[in-house]
Amino acid sequence: MTQEINSNIRIIHVINGPITETITIRPIEEKDNKEIAALIRKVFEEFDAPKTESVYSDPLTDRLFQSFYQHPRAGYWVVEYNSNIVGGCGFYPTEGLDTDCAEIVKFYLSPLLRGKKVGSALLNMVEEKAQESGYKQLYIESFPQFQNAVSLYERKDFRHLESRLGNSGHTATTIHMIKNIQE
């Protein structure tokens, strides 16, 4: 069950056996930089995903708050559980994309939350926020190592492209997808 606190914060109640756990999705704050960067890199290591020419080695991964909040048509949200950052996702007007297209960026979750519909709720929220910012399309880059995430994108109506769009600088990615979000 997802509960909207305000337009930028959502509370998700996840049932874990006999216990209902509360997870908060909120805008990134500067204090979150170190923790979300560590989580992103840990996921890359967990799945043995490419570490060069990817988010793993991108210096902006260490400064997500600054990257997103200096641009008026970008946003990034973190997933917080028990005062720890356990996930995140955002959208950004990546260089080289059409002005009505944003890239879904740095979408990663701790193993603690996978398979509990938290990723789906987070992606839905980010899509809504991108739409409110005037975007008509969302683009995403990924790797075969993240097959469960790619399956989520497919279920959310992203379609595969033959080649990359824009210039994210993450040239190691081999999966490129796009979705129309406004008719």
Automatic annotation (TrEMBL):
All residue ranges annotated as the N-acetyltransferase domain in the record: 23-182
Keyword terms, alphabetized: Acyltransferase, Transferase
Superkingdom of origin organism: Bacteria
Keyword Transferase assigned: yes
Transmembrane segments: none
Cross-referenced InterPro entries: Acyl_CoA_acyltransferase, Bact_Acetyltransf, GNAT_dom
One Gene Ontology MF term: acyltransferase activity, transferring groups other than amino-acyl groups
Annotated signal sequence range: none
Gene3D superfamilies listed in its UniProt record: 3.40.630.30
The name this protein goes by in its record: GNAT family N-acetyltransferase
Lineage, opening ranks: Bacteria, Pseudomonadati, Bacteroidota, Bacteroidia, Bacteroidales
